[in-house]
């Protein structure tokens, strides 16, 4: 049941007979609901449509024109609409109207109507993704239209097993959602779980992918995202081929990929396009920078307020020389710096690109150096904060990089209270938490916990494509594919 | 146990570790070198250099270094450093001091009296180097503070490079403790002195220790290199030069590549220690050349073996005279001949040992020319 109305109206919907008057009152006599009577072949047809959702051109040339010129009474053969369905109840008729269909009713026989596809589309052109940039990857990003997004995904994933399931979510305003997976590769258990969770969504309305994410992720009280949001069809397609499931939401250019593990967020399209040495190197850099971004500020605090005997002597003197002018404790010092950086970051998102460059220079360079010269922060603190933010920018996924920013603060606090011990406690806590997390029942921190050597092929390093010849053990068609580099053997056997 | 109790325990546990004693770097006065002297009244005097680095605000990045010399007196080392703490702003912190200098008077007493307070502080750098001077430590440090301001860790590097060249025994604050409490082993420390002519602090050799105190006798760097070879603890580089007669070409320098020692201990009237040392050497400086000829090599091998055996004899006589068992023969007896050790053990067990060293030199290489 899609409409939750008051009881008096609900009873009207349930009426078997299709009634124009009822439909009109259901839609509150909205002024863009138009109807037109057409006399043709001694019959009176009524076309009902919502003006703003319908492509006028299509309606005129493909529905109205042939209808007027019609010579026999066989409507289905005469109209040029690509999709015709019968509407037997008011409910179906209204849903069709809201999707941009027009309703054709033969007067006299009110019980039957046809829904004809005449919807207007406001698709923008497919353009390069803005957030997830790549060097060599496809220059195509998802758009706001559901059908176009499925089209984009299908063109890079040609397979008879490509399966689309549609759902309509939202109880007061509705949104179409498509569940997409490759049937032969995806664990049926996961599909079942996803379907179950989607069906249980009873939100009033779906605003964005975030609403669905909130409703279906395993744990909400965690800084770690368990669903991957992407705007790249090639990335989504690659994940489908890994046996994952994609959720496309109408009106949203971000596609949800699930289930996601911790390492999923470190993969980029470029890893697989460049040679595997390079791909592995970048993968390693990303993991390394993740750790840096997480613990560097905490380490700095522990160094300068507890354990400076571990810093080399020369560094002690130079750190000390700029620290001695700072009136705050190291924790406060870094907090000021980190917060002002967060301000800069947040401010620069809303700025037009032309102003953003100037803003970056004024905000970053001028404020940074002025802060040091005014003695608010030390050179060491500035370096640490700068390195931390650069490291967090290395993360290919926005949500993952935000998770480090959030986790960084409690770690800093722990380091300020307990020094190294605090960092150890904090990091242990994060690791335990990671190991406990699941995404759709699958361990989130795999392949580290539980340890699975086989899966390391595509984690810290990326092995060459021909070495990844096994599918996930949970997929229905788990099998070993043929070796791709067999030609080498063949060539060496060739006689010269 | 309830969930709340568990949480409480988890919360309290880190507090129990007692790691909250914050020591802010900006408040600390980091010591870069420390020296200890003993005056006539039995009071200790600690001299330290506190280094300050100033990055000037006006001209960016320009660094100026200044040394502050502080001294304090007290009945114990700790009291002396408390006296210093009273006279400096911030916390006097000896944790980063990488070189410790013992004045001659301190060294001649029980040096463990000085080191004890250092071992009790968990933050002290255990890899600190220890050296003995021929004067008061105050003198040397004052000199360093005035003359070596810009030279970074002058003394540490001086000692470190000597270790690399096998001129002194590799001893740190950590390793010296096992020598101090080993009844069958002694040690030697670098012996510093101020060269008045060059106005420089130099390593003049190594100071021989017996038990906990300096014997007053020191070895030259050549002698201590030879001793290190006998101990088989030389570094990668052990360069020696011997004078030959004019006819044979003046002098020859060689680098010891590897050492093998055979030690035989026998009890007769005294304990006889026969040490046979085989040195594989590489000739690094020998202008007469012609090292392709077997007779030339034989000649060098014989001459060097003879010279070194003589030197070793003199060396072990020196050690015996000072009862300094740097070689660790006592330890050898404890380990392999406990029955002999039982008979001779005591404060001056080294009197009962007679060392008969023999050196055999094998020329293995002549560099890239013959």
Automatic annotation (TrEMBL), chain A:
Keywords: Membrane, Transmembrane, Transmembrane helix. It comes from the Bacteria. Residues 477-486 have a biased composition (Basic residues). Its main location: membrane. It holds the Pfam family GerA. InterPro entries: Spore_Ger, UPF0353/GerABKA_families. The keyword Nucleus does not apply. It is a multi-pass membrane protein. Residues 477-496 are annotated as: Disordered. Coiled coil: none annotated. The chain crosses the membrane at residues 287-308, 376-394, 406-434. GO terms for cellular component: plasma membrane. One of its GO terms (biological process) is spore germination. It is found in: Cell membrane; Membrane. PANTHER family: LEUCINE ZIPPER PROTEIN 4 (PTHR22550:SF5), SPORE GERMINATION PROTEIN (PTHR22550). Belongs to the GerABKA family. This is Spore germination protein.
TrEMBL record, chain B:
Residues 21-193 form the Spore germination protein N-terminal domain. Keywords: Germination, Lipoprotein, Membrane, Palmitate, Signal. It is found in: Membrane. It comes from the Bacteria. GO terms for cellular component: membrane. GO terms for biological process: spore germination. It is a lipid-anchor. Residues 204-367 form the Spore germination GerAC-like C-terminal domain. Its main location: membrane. Belongs to the GerABKC lipoprotein family. This is Ger(X)C family spore germination protein.
